[in-house]
Amino acid sequence: MQPIEQLLRTPQPAPCRHLPRIAPAVAAILALTVARPAGASRPPSDCLWTALPQASRAAIVAGYARAGSEALASVPVENAMIRRAGRICGLDVAGDRLMPLVGASLAGASLEHAAAAALVAQGVAVARLERAWALTPKAEKTLILENAASAGPTDRAAAKQFFSTMASLAVRAGAPPPAGRSPMNERPFRTYVDYFLGRAQREAFQLKIAEARR
After folding, report:
1. Which of 41, 60, 68, 116 is the most exposed place for a label (fewest CB within 10 A)?
2. Nearest alpha-carbon partner for 110 in 174, 58, 185
3. What is the pLDDT of residues 152-166, one digit of tens each?
4. Rounded distance between C-alpha atoms, residue 199 and residue 194, angstroms
């Protein structure tokens, strides 16, 4: 499995990829303690997720429910699958120009949908998650999106700020406040954070895809 930063920087895609098990920003946090194919009229990232084969989506959701984001490393996503999803969603990835961006958006969507499914199974309303994201102050959302689109915080102070922002967002959405010194090891809290990290990565690379197509 290639970590997300390699997925973003590999000029020529490898024959087969695995979904990144963790967004780059998660690594910084840990150091402190992803229906039927829709048309191109839908947001690209949502379309990419639904364009994945149903068996792949089911494996992603089931794997996350069983073992969290680490399980996504065992779900292979071949380049041909990404190209097919791109074609369904009106994205030309034949020349590989958009391949890293599409792959990263798809990885974020996979984490988002898998975490959302786990939360729904616990009785959490998706509307509450969406409302918390929509009401996130602009400065905080910008910080989250910037980290999701990059290799994450550049130093310990930035990592602490990022974690504080993510923790506040998760708690506003209904996550139990972290109780220990390693909150990312607390599964209920981590699931909320995974949802927002996945959503942020999906949206950040959706924007990059739009910019690359201009």
Report:
1. 41
2. 58
3. 788 889 888 998 999
4. 8
Residue 199: pLDDT band by 50, 70, 90 thresholds? very high
Q: What is the mean pLDDT of residues 177-195?
A: 84
- For residue 49, give the nearest of 9, 8, 89 by alpha carbon: 89
Quickly tell me which residue has 């949502």 as its tokens: 46
Q: How far apart are CA 67 and CA 190, in angstroms?
A: 12
* Dihedral sign, Cα of residue 98, residue 103, residue 104, residue 109: positive
The values of phi and psi at residue 98, to 5°, are -95, -10
| Residue 147, helix vs strand vs coil | helix
CA dihedral of 119, 71, 17, 103, whole degrees rounded to 10? 20
Select the more confidently predicted residue: 37 or 113: 113
Closest CA to 103 of 83, 133, 123, 75: 83
Tell me which residue has tokens 């071949």. Answer: 78
Contact 56, 106 (CB under 8 A): no
Q: How many CB atoms lie within 10 A of CB 7?
A: 22
Burial class (CB in 10 A: 0-12, 13-18, 19+), 138: exposed
Please check the confidence at residue 187 and state whether its pLDDT lies above 70: yes
